[in-house]
Amino acid sequence: MAFLAPLLYCFSLLHVLVEAQPYQNITLGSSLSSLDSKTAWISNSGDFSFGFSMVGGNLYVGVRYEKIPNKPLVWTANRDMPAPTGSTVELTKNGSLIIKDVKGNLFFEIGGSSDGSIITHAAMLDTGNLVLQSSSASEFKWQSFDSPTDTILPTQKLALDYKLYAPFTATNLSTGRYYIVMQSDGNFVSYTEILEPTYASNTYGTKGRLVFDESGKLSIFQWENNKTVQLNPVDQIPSPSKDFYIRGTIDLDGIFRLYSYPRGRNNYTSNTWSIIWATQQYSACNMKGICGMNSYCTNKTSNSDFDCLCLQPGYSYVDAENRFLGCKLNFPMPDCRRYRAENYVLHTISNVNWNGGAYSELSVDESTCMQSCLDDCSCLVAVYGSSKCSKKRMPLRNSEPGIDGVKALFKVPRDNNSLLLPPYLPNITHNDRSKQSRFGVGGIVLLGISVSLILIFIVETVTLIRIKRRIPHRSEEEEGLLQPEMQLTRFSYKELEKVSRGFKEKLGSGSFGTVYKGMMLSAYGQNPIAVKQLDKFMENGDKEFQTEVSVIGRTHHKNLVQLLGFCNEDSHRLLVYEYMEQGCLSSFLFGSIRPDWNQRVRIAFGIAKGLMYLHEECGTQIIHCDIKPENVLLDGNFIPKISDFGLAKLLRHDQTKTNTDIRGTRGYVAPEWFRKMAITVKVDVYSYGVMLLEIICCRKNVELNMKDEPTAILVDWAYDCFISQQLEMLVEHDEDAKSDMKKVRKMVMVALWCIQEDPSLRPTMKKVTQMLEGAVDIAIPPNPSSFISSME
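^ thats the sequence. predicted structure below, dont judge the formating
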């Protein structure tokens, strides 16, 4: 094996020589416009280019194949933040790549020098690597190869523990739910649904790194024993490899594949990408989590061909263009206060089950199982087999197809059957009188529908014209609400009073106001919205209103609630948000039924991602100041979204801390608020740590009515359980969590680091997400109160 070391050195030298190829400098101050599709920075060979790409109506900036039809992207700078129409990208004088909107406002920034050295130019290399270079240094100061998105190219190294994330959908390139990582233990591993490992390409059991050479060989080099393990067979690599483009991509289904495409195309019969190797070779339906929630997997004609299906009737795809995302209910969840079994019916699917989610198991016959589910408001699905009835919570996850003798019984409303099933048409005798009757009734119905549609069209058109023509006189204060980068609708009070039906349906109360449900008419029908009405008598109400509009109006992240518009008319202050079907996290966690463990893990991770965006990725750094379960909302897919920014604090670009009055909610407020210390983003980290413990344990942080006094204060009890190695007590009645104690321990350790009394000991939210992902090791946390003890 000793001969491999010189070969590896030669490979490294070859990599350097390849990257040292001649290239045309891109000078500082150069720019590209999205309005001119022909402009791009092209490599010397013409194989790759850097510029704007329109995918599914979203505008992305990235590296792409220049000579292949449709110019597929291999690296995307702004995958989670599509650029506004009319944007430009510029290489600034200080060596950063920035995206500006049509008005010249900074939208996104990448690149730059990490060590403070001066960048003199950029270049698009023939390897597909976009680089920023300094004339005084041989190495690149920044390169796209160091931060891949979903694809790696020959000569590109996948750094240890760096992840390739699949896109969210075929037309939405944002970070999806699958990733693959070269782990420090020597395994090349795919994960689904964040934090849930599903399969590895192999188990090598020793530290190594992933090597992707020019010939298309994908290997793991184990430096501890000087050994190379090749992943893809040599006979599957096209020859000669120089005549093909080769790439490795993690696809929508979570499978990492190597593809080839003929460069010249004239001498080849195929002009499409060919799969030459994949990490997953067996039936895709055997992959845990391959289909999203409330769906099940079915194999087609071959092991690699599969589909994700919805329960029918009653369910439809979240996104018909990407069936992997799962299915949603087409009817409202049963209201248990008015639930009646006779209003529902059961449908059956054979040979399908879902892992976990069972809250009740009975040993009964099938008819008793069916009646038990019908009588139970909480039961939407029951799985029956071998004389056992498992009543399951929604959503359903991780389908198991092909299980003989198992039936899935799912419940749908009886009154909605006309909407869920093809319409029932009674038999009609064909005589003149019946024809006349059919014409009369049908004509009246059609006429009524036509008139209704015309009236709706007229009302909607008039409303749109009124909105467009209305140009109200705005005060300087009102003008300050709308920043150039915001795209918010200004509503009148009468409009919001109408769509909320006089503010009748109350959803809940938040800081300074009450939230009501409304229905907004659009071109796609009626869509629910949430209208927050600020209390007129609340002190600082105007300040809270202005803060919320200015803060959330400029944010763009899937884990932050979306602000649609506002009303600032006379004494009326209202905010219009997207409607969140599942309500707030506190109701979800502290209800009568304990939520699914894996679902709670995903929610905790999503909140962490949202806070990381506010602290580190947003154009203006934002401290939320009031993180708690009541201020986290859940959409129809149980994706968490941070809300209620009324107490938020914005930091200038040159600020890392601020002084302000105490803000937040008792139990979640960081200790430094009470010590007259400067406030940083670490106050949100503290609040997140408290909330993370609540998510783990499904209980509030303080429960003074508990019989066992040591357990009353959750943060103290959690540390005691950790030190005494009795963490199972925190999840005592949660079988799913108890079977996953390794993850429970990791999450508790993260929470204990977050609630350290000393702010400097708390991790950043970026570090928190890395610890939750398993990308970095977690040290044993000290006693959270040790900072106070050392001061006394």
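The first strand starts at residue 26 and ends at 27.
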